[in-house]
Amino acid sequence: MRLYTDEIINAVCLHMAERRGVSPTDVEVQLSWEEQYGFTAEVWVNGRSQYLVEANLLEAIEQYLYKQYQIRKFRSQITLDADEEFWADIED
Question: Name one Pfam family in it (predicted).
């Protein structure tokens, strides 16, 4: 299974909305990859910015898979990658 950029962003929006007690539409996400930091995301909730590291992104994807698809996967089974677009490969 593979999730692409839009679903990864949805996963982060839903995860952060639940943690902050806001609507998912109140969350904005910008994914990035840098040599020094790996995969990160800048998240804005109610005008406040926060950076998430790869472990946070994997947690959001793990929860998303469970809540949206009823698929139980662990972070060790999720691999992030990027080229022109971001994606997450989920082990079968």
Answer: DUF2653
